[in-house]
TrEMBL record:
Signal peptide: none
Coiled-coil segments on the chain, per record: none
Taxon lineage: Bacteria, Pseudomonadati, Pseudomonadota, Betaproteobacteria, Burkholderiales
Protein name, per record: Circularly permuted type 2 ATP-grasp protein
Domain Circularly permuted ATP-grasp type: 72-447
Length: 471
């Protein structure tokens, strides 16, 4: 992989790539003052609407605006066709893997994945063994993080199958760009994204266990203090379904009901934004005040669908990530369309030895980590930080994987000094139900600090609108 980042907008010779030329010509004719005013307008509207992100542990306040950049990330129709095929393939294999490990466990019998990697994984739920889920779909909503490196090749960085977030920002970013710069959409044929809530609702209704003609779908939230509460409320409103908390529902004779002003109403499908541990205090964490006592019994009886299914986290754990290409070959008899990033599994002595020998060059991640926490970016770390991490690796190597430090692609971004390249990634969203569908594009996240490779909102990252061109 090349150490020089691939520039999304410009070639190495400084020429504007063909698919960015209309935007580039428009940008050349924009007064800096107009762009500054538009950025300020976007911030004001986002704050007024309440599009904020809760950052835990910050003394300055829990709510922060996610920075929005007005330079879009543009993907050609041909590039999207490859991405879409690769993501469909990957999520199909992951769903087949989840069905397998909770039922026949064929892949474990072959030795492709060591059984202890599954059964000792804290995301594995033995309570799901032998449970029949509607349509054999476990990951109804998947957010797959994709990066571009080297000469422009796409790689999957990680899979998010538990409660993937960020789609509301994708939708609001598009709405904002169309409001600020409507002329851009007259000049460029950009694939629409606003039908995502309709697709999501259709997807959820299609997996109702009752095969009802009018299934009741709800969105289960931990409540207003959750970091992604804006998204929970936004999606429920956009889909026209009830936003509920655990206290709003109850179980009676293995059927789930929600309380309404007209009396109890049966619930068929839960789009849950709550981790497994908190779903049912009778089955998981006894101290949970967020779930519904007895929910697991309803689920096991086949009287409610949970999206995503309990136990999906075992497939998005970073210790399982290196095996996804093998899953694709095993279940689909196909070669992966989108590659994994090369990965060292530190639990293997020979891998650990190599990682320790080149630690300053690598990115090291906790296998259960998320949000950019608990990781080492070797080239951006001090000697002291590297040595501290070395001791963590030596004392508990199974907790970590390591990867080369990718030169993530860059996209021009407005910063304090003006237009400058910043590293980006992409999270497309894959819906699996009676059919598999993707909205063209996804959430583009941008590392706003110069040289930073960490795009997570919780670590100071921002977002961009993602354009997939229709021609």
């Amino acid at each position: 992989m090349s150490a020089i980042p691939f520039d999304e907008m410009n070639t190495s010779g400084g020429e504007v790539r063909h698919h960015y030329q209309d935007f580039s010509r428009w940008l050349e004719h924009q007064a800096p003052e107009r762009l500054q005013n538009k950025r300020a307008e976007a911030d004001l509207i986002f704050r007024r609407v309440g599009i904020t992100f809760a950052v835990y542990g910050e003394e300055s306040g829990t709510e922060r605006l996610i920075p929005f950049d007005i330079v879009p990330r543009v993907i050609t129709a041909a590039e999207w066709k490859i991405l879409e095929a690769g993501l469909r393939q990957r999520v199909q294999a992951l769903n087949m893997f989840l069905k397998d490990i909770y039922n026949e466990q064929k892949i474990l019998a072959t030795g492709l994945i060591p059984p202890e990697q599954i059964f000792n994984n804290e995301q594995y739920r033995p309570e799901m063994q032998g449970v029949k889920v509607a349509g054999d779909i476990y990951a109804h909503i998947a957010g797959v993080d994709v990066v571009r490196a080297g000469e422009g090749e796409f790689y999957v960085l990680e899979d998010n199958l538990r409660v993937p977030s960020g789609v509301s920002y994708m939708l609001e970013n598009r709405k904002m760009m169309m409001r600020l710069f409507p002329e851009l959409f007259a000049r460029n044929r950009v694939a629409p994204v606003e039908h995502y809530p309709d697709n999501l609702l259709e997807n959820l209704r299609s997996v109702s266990p009752q095969n009802s003609t009018d299934p009741t779908v709800v969105l289960l939230t931990p409540g207003m203090y959750n970091s992604a509460y804006f998204e929970h409320a936004f999606l429920a409103q956009q889909m026209g379904i009830e936003l509920v908390e655990g206290k709003d529902m109850f179980v009676d004779e293995e059927v789930l009901y929600m309380r309404t002003t007209q009396g109890p109403k049966r619930v068929d499908v839960i789009y849950r934004r709550l981790d497994d541990d908190f779903l049912d205090p009778l089955a998981f964490r006894e101290d949970s005040q967020l779930g519904v006592p007895g929910l697991l019994s309803v689920y096991r009886a086949g009287n409610v669908t949970l999206a995503n299914a309990i136990g999906t986290g075992v497939a998005d754990d970073k210790s399982i990530y290196p095996y996804v290409p093998d899953m694709i070959r095993f279940y689909l008899s196909e070669e992966p369309i989108i590659k994994n990033v090369p990965t060292w599994q530190c639990r293997k002595p020979e891998h650990l030895k190599e990682v320790l020998s080149k630690l300053p060059e690598l990115v090291v991640k906790e296998v259960h980590g998320a949000g950019g926490y608990g990781m080492l970016v070797g080239p951006a770390s001090t000697k002291e930080q590297i040595e501290d991490f070395r001791q963590k690796l030596i004392s508990d190597p199974a907790k970590f994987i390591a990867q080369p430090t990718l030169a993530l692609s860059t996209c021009p971004t407005f910063v304090e000094s003006g237009l400058a390249p910043r590293h980006i990634d992409l999270r497309p969203f894959v819906l699996s139900g009676s059919k598999v569908s993707l909205i063209p594009g996804g959430l583009s996240r941008v590392a706003l600090r110069e040289g930073s490779l960490v795009v997570n909102s919780s670590q100071g990252g921002g977002t961009k609108d993602t354009w997939v061109l229709e021609r």
